[in-house]
Amino acid sequence: MELRTITTEDLPLWETMQCDPIMMAELGGPHPKEKIPQIFHNTMEYVNTGRGWVFKIMPDEDPERAAGSVCIWEHSWQGEPINEMGWMILPGFQGRGLASKAVRATLDKARAEGRWDVVHAFPGVTNAASNAICRKAGFSLLDECELDYAGRLLRCNHWRIDLRSDPPDSAGEGT
Ligand SMILES: CC(C)(COP(=O)(O)OP(=O)(O)OC[C@H]1O[C@@H](n2cnc3c(N)ncnc32)[C@H](O)[C@@H]1OP(=O)(O)O)[C@@H](O)C(=O)NCCC(=O)NCCS
Known about the structure:
Elements: E1 2-5, H1 11-18, H2 36-49, E2 52-58, E3 68-77, E4 80-89, H3 98-113, E5 118-121, H4 128-137, E6 140-149, E7 152-162
Antiparallel strand pairs: 1-2, 2-3, 3-4, 5-7, 6-7
The structure holds coenzyme A.
């Protein structure tokens, strides 16, 4: 698996992921296709200004075909600046450990480069796979909360990892 920073060529990947009702089931439902260029423009702004890392995930078995994305970006939550992390894997690539690997690789890169000290993640409370990914990557579960995601209110688990002190895979790697 390889992580590659997205470019302007990746708009179709964003449309595939964010207009799919299954992919977006835990994220308030699919976005209308006409909203994707603006969403993608905002995402590219994070990349271009350095306020975000946005990677596409290239699987070993098909290295030129993106299987999904993993991102960390500066965000505001309850009036405080935070760093938030999120991930998506296309249905055809799910269930092979790809999201787990991509999340761990992104956190390892952040540690190695001294970027993104404290990182938060907010998977939906019913998103079993994403909550498992957080636990295995060494995030700690703080509590449940309501999160406004693109105008939709979601019931989420609030996970947090401090990359300066929490060891990698501290919470059950291999379980
Ligand atoms: C969540 C998502 C990224 C998982 O991708 P994936 O590559 O299939 O995940 P992995 O294969 O690394 O599996 C992660 C863990 O979840 C478990 N898992 C996978 N699918 C699951 C499911 N439907 N129900 C319960 N557990 C599941 C796996 O068994 C694995 O745990 P394990 O290592 O202890 O066995 C993918 O389903 C997705 O993109 N969903 C839609 C978008 C989304 O919800 N993103 C998260 C926003 S925070």
